[in-house]
Amino acid sequence: MALLRLLSIFALLISVLHSLPWSIDISESQGPGTILQPFSFNCSSYMPTLELLSVRPPTSFFNNPSLHRHDKGIYLGKVTLSSSARLDALAVNRYELQLQYKCGNFVLAGPLFVHVQRDPGRIRCAGPFASPAGEFVYVPETVTPGALLYALLLPGLGVQRAQMNITSAQDPPFFPGPFSIDDQGFLRAPSQGLKGQAPKTFQLQILVSLGKGQSCKGMLTVKVLPAPSSQVSFPQKAQSITISEDLVPGSKVIQVEARGFNLCYEIFSPRPSPFYSIGQADGVVRTTVPLDLARAQGAGVTKLQVRAFEKLRPWVSAEFDLTVNVRAVNQWPPRCHPALLVTQIPETVPVGTVLNTLTCVDPDSTSAPLSYQLQFHNPPDSASLRLRDRVLEVNTTLDCDTPGACFQHAASILVFDNGQPQMTTEVLVLVMVTPVNEFSPACVPRTFRVREDAGPHTLLGSIVGTDMDYPPNSLEYYISGAPPTFAVDRLSGELHLLGPLDYEQQRLYRITILLIDHSQDWDLNLRRSGSCTITIEVEDVNDHAPECEPPFQELTIYTPLGRSMEVTKVSCWIPQEPQRSALSYSIVGGNSQSRFRLQGSVLMHNDTALGPPWPEQPCTYELLIHVADVGPSIPHLSTTATIIVHLVPWRASTVATSTHRSTVSSTMTPLIVTDVEAFWKPEPWFVVVLTATGAVFLLVLGWLLSRILRGFAQSLQAPNKPARALLLNSIQGNAGSIERLKEAPRKEMSQHHFDGRAHDVCTGRDYLFNTRTGARHWL
Ligand SMILES: *[C@@H]1O[C@H](CO)[C@@H](O)[C@H](O)[C@H]1NC(C)=O
Ligand SMILES: *[C@@H]1O[C@H](CO)[C@@H](O)[C@H](O)[C@H]1NC(C)=O
Ligand SMILES: *[C@@H]1O[C@H](CO)[C@@H](O)[C@H](O)[C@H]1NC(C)=O
Ligand SMILES: CC(=O)N[C@H]1CO[C@H](CO)[C@@H](O)[C@@H]1O
């Protein structure tokens, strides 16, 4: 050892002294910290430095040299292997270290050659195999099962056999089966093969072990490659497809499929595609936005160019033209403004008045034309409104004064689009017609007649007013400025009498009836009026009974047989109302054999009616003449005059016809009983009748006595004179029979009604008679 040291010092001295390049051999098995070679320098008066300027090939295997003072003026320099030193004779077997020594101004530079010697007893895991990522082995997936994939050769292994094991786990399902490596370093594929394993990578940790406890580790990464494809192609070059616009975004349009291995798909035109996307792996084309044709412009037809390519070899590709047509779908009915049409118009609006104009749009297509149709609901089949294009107008008069309710018109406007399927919108129309008071009420002038004795509240008549507005004849009646004699019922138009009337004071009234309509206009204050004149004629009513002058006559008539002649004239009048001259006369009693009749007020005798043989003897007739007033009203006041006629038959050979008239003397007051039909008052009448009858009876008796005495001498030639004259008072209606005639047989009185008693001189018998019927009862 001491010898070696001496040698080295010697060598150093040589080197320093001669500055010769020198070299060192070092075994590759030397590790970090190994001192290569110490060398000394002579530098007495300076502090020397030693530097490693460079290493070729560059490496960090060497530390900077160190310099230590060894003895007086002598320094020892050392170069050691760094901690990263991994010497490998197969990789680099010579390093050149450039060293520089300084001692004061003295500079010495020179190379040091380090020769790395191989160590035959050492195995090494070197190269990419020993790197953390390991060695990459690319294998197509079509490799035959168990095929040799890789041979792991380790430097320095030489002919020695090492044991190689895969230490990492190879568990399914990631591993189709275990890879294997043998002692020669031959890596083989799993016996199951690698089909379908692309593009997996399998990392295999390899342990290399030699005897004598030596071993190292490394990594092999097997990457399975897909089978090399033949060619990528589409079954057809182009395709056209039609979809409807109502597809929601994300809907599948079509799936494209190309032949090839491990393909990807993309749309390469247009790029970016605004409406569609394609699934990179599955080739499904989907929509990305709503395809509303009205809004998404240009969505109608889209030409897509699709490319399919191999994932690992993108340049292997095929192209496909896809045309997507979007079909419009009618999704929305038209939208209209206004959506509901309610309006109110007066009935007088002229035909052609515009009620409203519809504005409709189709959300599906703003430009497509729409069609409109008017449909009536109430009244059905009405022609009152019409639709011209989109304008609702009044078509016919909306007059509501004719019967039938027309105040509300209900209809619909149907708006159709022309899409498929057709969509419809209904716009309800409600037109209220308001009434207008157009017409004035009217009434016809009329004349009413009323008896002057009519009582209060007597109905004179009804005024009928008319008004053509609806509701018809909604009228009220008023009397305009009338005297308070009349009143009109406000609602019914009946005209009533209020106060007393007097024909003698006022015969004619003219009153103006005012008619005012109501409830015939939307504005209830709008009322119209009309009027007409009603004439009221007061009818005269006779207030007094007629009187006759003289009231009682007695006549002797010489009449030629079979001749007719005037007997006398009955002259009667109403003294209080001399203008009322029309009176009616009738014979009501004593006209036996109907020998007398009345021509107006003239009493005629007619023998011819009797026919021969005419009576030879004189006869006496007591005739009762009923006199009544006639006028505009029913005659109701009357009197009865009495005429006694002595009829003396006269032969033509004797004397001419003559009439002997004897009037009632002034002392003999004839009695005329009058009776007002409507108002018979029995009590005063009875008193008068009884008194008067008694008095007359006495007078007549006296007169008869004088007649008998006077006529005794004439009794030979004159006919039989009536022994008595009966003055009977006519009583109309139910006046009843005269009490005096009690001797009449009871049973016949009960059957007939007799007013008086008379004596027929021609037959010589007494009889009872009825003044109205002329019936007789012979006693
Ligand atoms: C390595 O593999 C061999 C068989 O090839 C086996 O006998 C040996 O035990 C294995 N060694 C280790 C450490 O697994
Ligand atoms: C409009 O009125 C006329 C008659 O005036 C009728 O012929 C026509 O049909 C009406 N129009 C409509 C749309 O009802
Ligand atoms: C008298 O009566 C007869 C028969 O009724 C009639 O034909 C005749 O005309 C009358 N004479 C006169 C003058 O009225
Ligand atoms: C041992 C050795 O060589 N020593 C030398 C160092 O250098 C001085 C002068 O430069 C010499 O005198 C010594 O002999």
UniProtKB/TrEMBL annotation:
Residues 1-19 form the signal peptide. Keywords: Calcium, Membrane, Repeat, Signal, Transmembrane, Transmembrane helix. SUPFAM superfamilies: Cadherin-like. GO terms for cellular component: catenin complex. It is found in: Membrane. The keyword Manganese does not apply. InterPro entries: Cadherin, Cadherin-like_dom, Cadherin-like_sf, Cadherin_CS. It holds the Pfam family Cadherin. Residues 235-336, 337-443, 442-552 form the Cadherin domain. One of its GO terms (molecular function) is beta-catenin binding. It comes from the Eukaryota. The chain crosses the membrane at residues 685-705. One of its GO terms (biological process) is cell migration. This is Cadherin-related family member 4 isoform X2. It comes from Mesocricetus auratus (Golden hamster).
